[in-house]
Amino acid sequence: ADRRLKGVDFTETTCGFCAVGCRFQLVSKDDEVLGAVPTDDPDHAPVNDFSTCVKGKFGYEFANSDDRLTTPLVRGDDGELHEATWDEALTRVVEGFESIREESGADALAAFASSKCTNEEDYLMQKFARTVLGTKNIDNCARLCHSSTVAALKQTLGFGAMSNRINEDIGEADAYLITGSNTTESHPVLSTRIKRNVHDGADLVVFDPRKVEIAEHASQYVRTKPGYDVAWINGLIRYIVANDLHDEAFIEERTRNFEEVREKVEPFTPEEVERLAGVPPEELERAAETIATADSVVFGWAMGMTQHSHGTQNVLALADLALVTGNVGKPGAGVSPFRGHNNVQGGGGDMGTLPNNLPGYRDVTDPDVLDEFEEAWGVRPPDEVGLKVPEVFTEALAGNVEGLYVMGENPALSEPDVSHAEEALAELPFLVVQDIFETETTEYADVVLPAATFSEKEGTFTNTERRVQLVGQATTPPGGARQDWRIIQDLARRMGHDWSYADPASIMDEIATVAPIYGGISHDRLREEGGLQWPCRDADDPGTPYLYDEEFNFDDGRARFVPADTGEPGELPSEEYPLTLTTGRVLYHWHTGTLTRRVEGLMDHVGEAFVEVNPATAERLGVVDGGRVRVESARGAIEVRAEVSERPGDGVVFVPMHFAAEGAVNRLTGERFDPTSGIPEYKVSSVRLTPIDDG
Ligand code: SF4
Predict the structure, then answer these.
(1) Is 55 touching ligand 1 by the criterion CB < 6 Å?
(2) 572 within a domain of the structure (yes/no)
(3) 341 lines ligand 1 (CB under 6 A)
(4) 434 pairs with which residues across the strands?
(5) How confident is the model at residue 111 (pLDDT cuts 50, 70, 90)?
(6) Whose Cα sits closest to atom 4 in ligand 1?
(7) Residue 86 binned pLDDT confidence (cut-offs 50, 70, 90)
(8) In CA terms, which of 135, 241, 245, 550 is 20 to 30 Å from 293?
(9) Could you tell me if the CB of 595 is within 6 A of ligand 1?
């Protein structure tokens, strides 16, 4: 970029799309974001140096869009949303929440935080829910992505997070097992690191029902049957133990309960694994040998492991496999859940926007923890576990949740079986939505509050490797739009709480006092030293590049093997719905598409939803490439273009998650949940396909 251009500003910041956490400079002029250029300070860009992906480089039209919400909206007696002043809108919000609380109690209220917002904003959102509204019901969309990862890793290793670093560990592993992750399209810069290392000789083993792009680079790709992952992972463990390839010294010195896992995996003979998961014995054996004999292995996964009715069991099995082979707590190895949203690790977890955890993953039912928070906040937080996102909708339909405050989320498109979520949103007596655009969810709102996007605010995001990094403000929010932390603070004050944060830095100072894993983090330090990886317990703590090098996060310092149970998907193919649908992402779009569907350059690449169909399936059904088809499940139907491709196996179809209207895939998915984490089973639904035309 030509730095001499007059009136052009360059702002160091962290990407607002995915959790890889690339750093770059936003280029802006006259309060418009023009694009991104490499950082001036590569030492503070450890993940990406000078590179970014297509979204990070060009995906900013949305910020300048004429569609941005610039003034609050309040629903009038005529049933329509009308422009209002901030005073009118906030008065309505306060009246709405207070009257429900008076008549039905605080637990008739719920709030959703946002993995897109900063740590500071999400921290305030959960504090607002717990101390101002007084409700136990606070959750966020991480419920829908890695809640099963968090549940499983907390039980086995102690922290519900990635154990290692992107560059030094994932970029340097001797071998990889990647499963249920379309890494190239969902985490582009991270996948480049992996591919570069594979090019230099590392082994890459990919198990996935869909031959995703990264599988093209694999030394071994194994197609699996959707929904039977515990079978092949337990099968790998069985083979490794039976052939004495496990790391006995590590198991002996650093773990507990190995015998329970040894017994559990006994039935998973190669023949049984083939029967259940469709993995041929020779493929299982080859993968087991690669994993067991490598010097260091990184286990990488994403939604393909977690979004199942037994997602927690899947991740338990992966953690067991990592422990059996001694691949945790050393360089070049580790467990790597690839997180999705830019700040899902921080805002969606660390900040306590969870029904069971206060900031720093502190237990809401522990009286000592509650004493500490009461001391810090001046108000005692509720001492019960609150409702999870899907439960909020069920309780809304039952009339038990009456008021909902949604910040930066679009549940009317992201929930499974959206028709059901729509019904619940329509039933809710009072809904407040804070967002940067009107979305499918604002259609149901009583009050809409216009917020700021990441280029318009300061704060921090925590990336997938637990690295807390600064976000810089490049532009001002358009019109009357305001930063989320200011809106929440204003509401708290109007509801009688004396909040007076001067800026996001002072909010981080408070976070450091209540969340010990952030104890040494401050904006000043991040500005001087660059990002810091938690746990970072005090001002002298340099942070923790990889976890568990000496001990696991339990009192005795030992990891726990937890045997994983195999289970069937909640819905199996039937005569009426004989195909298996799986959902996912494409490179050019982001989640429900609220941002990227507004960027012409991205829409030029992929402008509408589609269904990928294997050639054999297509031939049987008379579906042609480019033709339109109807995809139906027991819950609803969509009409999309067919893409005939070898990527899915015969009998399996794939639809991306980013589109609305007739392309909204969550019309098809169902409400089946993992019993531990509450994650919905997006990855397995039964459908049928009917050709409409030849395109
Ligand atoms: Fe942003 Fe992720 Fe792309 Fe990096 S890889 S530029 S963090 S979207």
Answers:
(1) yes
(2) no
(3) no
(4) 407, 449
(5) very high
(6) 22
(7) very high
(8) 550
(9) no
Indicate which atom in ligand 1 lies nearest the CA of residue 187. 5
Assigned domain for 542 exists: no
Tell whether 195 and 95 lie within a shared domain. Answer: no
What ligand 1 atom has the least distance to the C-alpha of 20? 7
- Strands 109-113, 403-407: pairing kind: parallel
**Spacing, Cα 119 to ligand 1 middle (Å):** 18
For residues 213 and 124, state if they share a domain: no
Measured in angstroms, how far is the CA atom of residue 44 from the centroid of ligand 1?
A: 15
Q: Which atom of ligand 1 is the closest one to the Cα of 21? A: 7
Residue 535: cis peptide before it, omega within 30 degrees of 0? yes
Asked, for residue 79, whether it belongs to a domain, the answer is: yes
> With bands split at pLDDT 50, 70 and 90, how would you rate the model's confidence at 585?
low
Q: Residue 245's domain is classified under what CATH number? A: 3.40.228.10
26 lines ligand 1 (CB under 6 A): no
Angle, alpha carbons 536-338-56 (nearest 5°): 90
Angle between helix axes 229-242 and 258-265 (nearest 10 degrees) is: 110
346 in the same domain as 211? no
**pLDDT surpasses 50 at 437:** yes
Query: Is the shortest distance between the CB of 193 and ligand 1 below 6 Å?
Result: no
Residue 399 has pLDDT above 70, yes or no: yes
Query: What's the complex ipTM?
Result: 0.99
Of 38, 64, 90, which closes a domain?
64
At 588 the pLDDT is 58
Dist. CA 487–CA 507, nearest whole Å: 14
Q: Which of 166-180, 484-498, 508-522 has the lowest mean pLDDT?
A: 166-180
Q: Which range marks the domain in which residue 151 is found?
A: 147-337
| Cα end-to-end distance, the chain, whole Å | 43
Residue 669 in contact with residue 654, Cβ under 8 Å? no
